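Known limitations

Files may contain more than one protein. Parsers should not assume a single record per file. Below, a two-record file is shown to illustrate correct handling: read the sequence, read the token line, then continue until end of file.
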Amino acid sequence: MLVAAVVAAMTSFVWRRNKSLGTGVVTAATLLAAAAAFAQDDLVRRGEYLTAAGGCISCHTMDVAGAVPLAGGRKLETPFGTFISPNITPDKATGIGDWSEEDFLRALWEGESPDGEVYFPAFPYTAYTGASREDLLAIKAYLFSLSPVSQSNLEHDLSWYVSTRLAASAWQMLNFEPGRFEPDAAQSDEWNRGAYLVRHLGHCGECHTPRSSTGVLQADREMAGSVLGEEKIPNITPHPDAGIGRWSKSDIEYFLDAGMLPDGDFAGSSMGDVIDDNTSRLSREDRLAIAAYLMSLPAMADD
């Protein structure tokens, strides 16, 4: 609306100042093109921020020196086998360059590829389903502004009983219900922003919430810690001993920014990548919102 109003005012001024109708038309068209380019640049910048908030780089970049960001190849070890992330650069042959806006939304909201195949839930569409249309399309705009990278996707290495898309479809039918995030009117704007970032865009529970034997997140133990491959993922509920209940809000915010714990130690392993590629790139306000949400959770002792 603001861009449209500015363009209208500038165009009116140009028409009054120009004696020639032709000159006025050319100038108005130029202004409209400039306004559209400005709006697209703004969308891409917003998408870059949201891509960091969504943790896309950490998962979609190989864990080797010199790896091309977002070109896929990252291995994710799970009890069901090894999943390997795909190329999400705008390469049309090996990436997502042929995807429409609706293809992109369907993948993140419904866990379904443009070809109609159901994704394995290692791709956290179960969290992204809560993200807004505006945020997801901004992410797409940013991804499509990047240089395409030709890097073929690798096959997952999975246990036989979960290795087919039929198994993925069955899991989805039993365990997934799509839907957008709805703010809680009883909570503050900061809490709601934190809930949106933690539950959906940042999908923190994908690592920090334990799962059932079928890979379903245990909602009643949100952020109570889990095991991912050989890595023990910590409890980040406000339990004073098992979790981060002794941390202040500023401790949490600073950890998400610089990776330093209150005792002076630093985050390592996969959390180091999350801080480098994700939380350190957020605004201080967003990190404080994440802290506010985490501090509001029920304190959970370890099992």
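...continuing to the second record:
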Amino acid sequence: MTALLGLSLDDRALAVAAEGRVLGVAPSIVRRAGGAEPAGTPAADLLRSRPAEVSARHWSDIAAETAASAAGRSLAVLELRARLREAGCGDARRGAWIAVSAAFTPRALSDVLAAAQAAALDVRGFVDAAVATVAPLGLARPAIVLEMGLFHVAATAVECGAVVRRRRSIVSRGGGLLDIYQSWLDVVSAAMVLRTRFDPLHDAAVEQRLFGDLPRLSAQAIEHGSATVVLAGATGERHGIAIARDQFAAAAGARYRELERCLHELRRAGAPVAVVVPAALLALAGLRERLQTLSDCELIAVPDGWAAAVASQLPDEAVEGGHVRLLRRLAATTRLPEGEAPAREHLGERRGAGIDPTHVLHAGRALPLTPRGLSVGREGNPVEIAAPAGAAGVSRRHCTILRGNDGVVLVDHSRYGTWVNDERVAGRALLHAGDTVRIGEPGIDLTLISVGGAHAQAAPG
């Protein structure tokens, strides 16, 4: 019996797998119709030099149901056929499970199904890519799966246990890996013009070579603190400069912040979670350092194509009544895909871990913490810390910060929510020295500090 295929529709790394083994994975950057080569074949080497002949947005347009999605469907069919041939799957009809990223709306899956069927795939069903990614990892804690497409970033919260279940996804469109690469091209170009008077973005062929070299330059900057960029001009003259890791990180900061925003919105304040990320993203200079600020979390890096490999191991179930299902839950499994295993590491310790705060710093005053507690709320109410009367998102009695038997605790009483280190509090949260509490919009920020040493205690009230 012919093995089922697994596909993962991640335009940064579209993958084909069979029997738990990745057969092929590459960015979804392909030729349009009318070029020298057949439409749908890989064309990342032409993206910057001959952009009119290349498409990188067809899956993104389908996922977001844009006006251009109709044109994207025909190109998606051609690309799927080309990918299947490259993976050695031939032109015969094959059964397949498709892992779909958070970027796809449920309605967009009808277009995906039509494209897959036109590419000779007998689709058994769709599975949420984040759920497929987590199912074999054996996690006891909740997980948040991060993804970065060519034109989006997203995070998906996943509940773990005997059944792995998708809880919620947040998608931010309008920027992704290609946006980061553009910011790096701009940084290199500005530095080279300033130091050598040579503009690498003035010549399409030079720009394409620089674009193709960006992953290597980022990896070099991570390892050595800087990367050396050497480019040849039209007459063969060579121009070289060094770009620091911090320059790469700063240029990509807007995309990293958006990915962090999605993550923090899904994580409950202070809750230990497993952050699951494609290993390729950790080769982006500066991203690992941003993730290291997460306290009490585990970082799990999975290879590209992992979700496709997991999908290829799902049961070969018949489709009933012509209705193709979207699975947002799977039974946890110990059946790992073949190839490289995920890498695991513990993320940075909580700032001030083991140090109880003794005071709350607000408006230049240090207010001592006591078992009676400090109440926070709207101005004009009997509270110790007051937000301006016109501040949005602040309740009359919003929250209380008090010293308890287990340490300093914030108790949320509000309708609007309270944030600790940019993560929403679910009822109550344990606080540490260095934590920041935010209420309202713009509202107020409170900083927890320890006065008098690591184990100082505020005087009882």
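Parsers that stop after the first record will miss the second one. For reference, the second record is described as follows. The chain has two domains: 5-174+258-346, 359-449.
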